[in-house]
Predict the structure.
Amino acid sequence: TPLVGVLALQGDVREHRAVLEQQGARTVAVRRPEELDGVDGLVLPGGESTTIAKLADRWGLLEPLRAAVRGGLPAYGSCAGMILLADRLLDAAGNAIPDQQTIGGLDVTVRRNAFGRQVDSFESEVAVEGLTGPPVHAVFIRAPWVEEAADTVQVLGRVSGGPADGRIVAVRQGDVVATSFHPELTGDTRMHRFFVDLVRERS
Ligand code: GLN
């Protein structure tokens, strides 16, 4: 049974653990570097990415997390988790924010709170490559999008329709996966199953 670490500094940790365990994984809350020992995969929850990054820095977790992802540990981030996995960040207005630390691992530029102030949250159907069945009912909460992705990054899903039509909201690069939306909140378990299957293949 694969062991998946869930970064547990802030955010919807409990929801991710519940879905991962439904998929047959064991989970461990990661708050200290030692808790990364022996994990087969890593999940970065939704929440507030500045808070998570600051806490990770303060607890001496940033470098161990970077090393783990660089070393090939499969990782999945939703929303704030996508921000944490991005190599480069923009604020909502499109200005670079190099002072916000990330774990990195995805050769993408991610724009925080990208969907605009008026649109605190919205829902939309997103066809995600690699998932069988109907499009995912995607819930976006003050969500980021991928502004730019390197050629080495596989685009798994885009918004279709509305003002954000065509925006990239699901990506994969090697064993690092990220979504702008929160499958852990909707009862659709396919995204987590996809990730747990990936972790199983690697462990
Ligand atoms: N807006 C949050 C951030 O920038 C992400 C929101 C979320 O995870 N639901 O970190």
